[in-house]
Predict the 3D structure of the following.
Amino acid sequence: MGSRKVRPVTGAAVAFLTGVSLLVCLSVGPSPGLSAEALPRLGTELGATSVSGLSSGAYMAGQIEIAHAKDIVGAGIVAGGPFACAETAASRAFPFWPTAIGQNATQALYSCMKTTMGAPDPEALVARTKALADDGVIDPVDALRDHHVYLYSGNDDQTVTRPVVASAKRFYDLLGVALGNVTLVEGAGGHAFITEQGGLACGLTDEPYVSDCNYDQARAILGWIYGPLQAASAEPQGKFVVFDQDPFSDPGDGFADEGVVYVPPTCQTERGCRVHIALHGCNQSREEVGDAFVHGAGFAELADANRLVVLFPQAKAITGINPEGCWDWWGYTGLDYLGKDAPQIKAIWAMVEHLAKREATDD
């Protein structure tokens, strides 16, 4: 794997009055300086949306998928575990913030990343998911049946260990996703998004958490969800739009000022393109690693010929609560973080709905 010094995993996502450090670590880098535009209205097809993510982005991808199962067709979960994995029984019984967050953080670190406290319990998490659906917090579980779910665990990933990812496959199987629609790929790589070329040497876990393992993970995810794809462009032919995220979120929701959406040439002029939401991991946002994930993951090149708009929402670091800029999968924005009205899920879905609008008067 080479002699490069790898920064140790410090898990700093939730050290807030608890001394508990959480997670899914990634890096620090320069902040991009492009001015933000308004998110465009493109008339995309809302009911053909998909989502993927790495690490904390993987957990958020699962949360968005399950919350909006009626309009989402599939998910890619790279180095992530099952829905609601970090939520503790104690946090539900005594929902006091921030005490409950510390309890969730401990479980996240020692059961949903490492398995020191035991691997996640898919049966219990399925029961919790069904209860949330029965309460109307998320879409009905039956809406997940025809989803296509891709899961990936790197052979050298010591951050989110393989039993955690395997528990996610068991979770989806028990939840009723159609037989054969869920795949767990065990392959090369550390804790990173995997590419056919570009990024760090294969097996390293270090910034910017994009790793060259001679495997096109973007194609694998999109192909599993949507079926056979057209060939990728040699270079992206469309436009990376840096847009203002403020209209979609409230202060304290954990969003950076700017997000990015990639719009292929055909989707700039034709309606009905599909949206894929691509979520970075902790310390992998633009303010920390520049556009390494946005430009380097391989989604944009595939989007051109496959009528896909790729949305790259951006989280930000918050001192004390979320110092590594992770997505909220343990409750730092509030204990109602799993459903449609959860701050981050609600904001990201508002972005997707905005992309589906056709004209300025189509509100």
In short: DSSP finds eleven helices and eleven strands in the chain.
